[in-house]
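Design request, tokens follow.
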């Protein structure tokens, strides 16, 4: 396998596997392991399918290095571009602000004091953005190299956690049935965002020079890695903690720290908690790189459309200053916007590629590559996308039960 394909697969996997993975067991607490597996595999299939749809449509792009918004304009005019650009940038800026805040907080914990705690946190936020942002500015080759290095550390930490937890798994914990079958539906939007690699499809297409075979291999391998990691992580946590312990944990401390404390107590090792924190840090960094690269590409595509300068000198401040400003001065306000991330991603990662593929197939009936499933597959995926977008509103109305996330 050529290095670029492997590098692209790892960038896709690195973008997909974020720190949110560690909160998954809390979200699935009342579902049981069996239904969690069904949900994960189903969502993996759905989002890999729509990722490949982007690749199918890219065959018709007028230029190799255009972004998804340019494809949307090509088929749906300026309205398509506006919807694609707004949904992408609001989603990515919100995510990046959250990652910068989290990364700065982690870094500030090992920095010397700069006066009060707030000042030290701001220094941590600035250093985190400056150091990692440099790799994004260098380009996808820089992100590729760093991602490979971080992935090794992430795998080592993850394997260590699994080795400590899996031997303590119990069959009766893994065979528990859902406390409420509707919880499976409520968890869909939260699990759905855990396969969000679509924001970097434009960069991957350019990096692999629009080679369909290479992109297809990169997408499939890049999504199978997180699916495997998610399944193993759920196996470990569901196996160690009984359903009653899970529910009790949610009532006491519905956060990652609560999960870390519980698993540390059960395994009897403080090292486990540190390894979970290490994995969380590495997952956050790789997600930061993927999201920042998505903004870089999206803003560049927008500037190119209006014949404005789109070099790195212009793109760097436009990519990092908005989320950095919110992370420094309004962290709570911007992170609150993450509540809409699932809704925005449902549009960008499901409805948009489906609509583009539908239109492209009408205008280009003899494309060299078509994703399996035909137009029936497009209709089924579209209906599922609408359902996923409606679920949060049904939870808000009390029609569906709320889950932790």
């Amino acid at each position: 396998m050529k290095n670029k394909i492997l590098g692209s697969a790892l960038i896709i996997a690195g973008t997909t596997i974020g720190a949110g993975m560690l909160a998954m067991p809390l979200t699935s607490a009342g579902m049981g392991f069996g239904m969690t597996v069904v949900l994960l595999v189903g969502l993996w299939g759905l989002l890999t399918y729509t990722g490949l749809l982007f690749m199918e449509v890219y065959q018709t792009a007028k230029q190799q290095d255009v972004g998804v918004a340019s494809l949307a304009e090509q088929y749906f005019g300026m309205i398509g571009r506006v919807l694609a650009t707004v949904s992408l940038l609001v989603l990515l800026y919100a995510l990046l602000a959250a990652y910068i805040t989290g990364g700065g907080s982690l870094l500030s914990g090992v920095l010397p004091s700069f006066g009060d705690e707030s000042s030290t946190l701001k220094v941590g936020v600035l250093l985190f953005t400056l150091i990692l942002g440099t790799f994004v500015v260098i380009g996808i080759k820089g992100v590729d190299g760093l991602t490979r290095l971080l992935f090794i550390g992430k795998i080592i930490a993850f394997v260590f956690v699994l080795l400590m937890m899996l031997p303590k798994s119990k069959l009766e914990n893994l065979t528990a049935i859902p406390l409420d079958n509707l919880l499976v539906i409520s968890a869909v939007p939260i699990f759905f965002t855990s396969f969000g690699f679509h924001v970097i499809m434009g960069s991957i297409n350019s990096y692999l020079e629009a080679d369909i075979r290479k992109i297809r291999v990169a997408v499939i391998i890049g999504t199978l890695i997180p699916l495997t990691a998610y399944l193993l992580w759920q196996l470990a946590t569901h196996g160690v903690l009984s359903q009653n312990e899970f529910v009790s944990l949610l009532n006491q401390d519905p956060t990652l720290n609560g999960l870390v404390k519980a698993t540390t107590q059960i395994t009897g090792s403080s090292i486990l908690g540190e390894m979970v924190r290490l994995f969380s840090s590495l997952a956050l960094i790789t997600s930061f790189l993927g999201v920042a690269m998505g903004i870089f590409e999206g803003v560049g595509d927008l500037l190119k459309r209006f014949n404005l300068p789109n070099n790195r000198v212009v793109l760097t401040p436009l990519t990092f200053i908005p989320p950095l400003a919110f992370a420094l001065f309004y962290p709570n306000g911007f992170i609150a916007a993450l509540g809409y991330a699932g809704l925005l991603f449902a549009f960008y990662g499901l409805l948009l590629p489906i609509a583009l593929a539908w239109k492209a197939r009408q205008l280009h009936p003899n494309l060299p590559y078509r994703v399996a499933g035909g137009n029936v597959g497009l209709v089924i995926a579209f209906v599922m996308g609408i359902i996923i977008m409606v679920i949060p509103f049904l939870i808000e109305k009390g029609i569906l039960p709320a889950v932790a996330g």
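Comment from the thread starter after seeing the answer: thanks! The longest helix spans residues 68-108.
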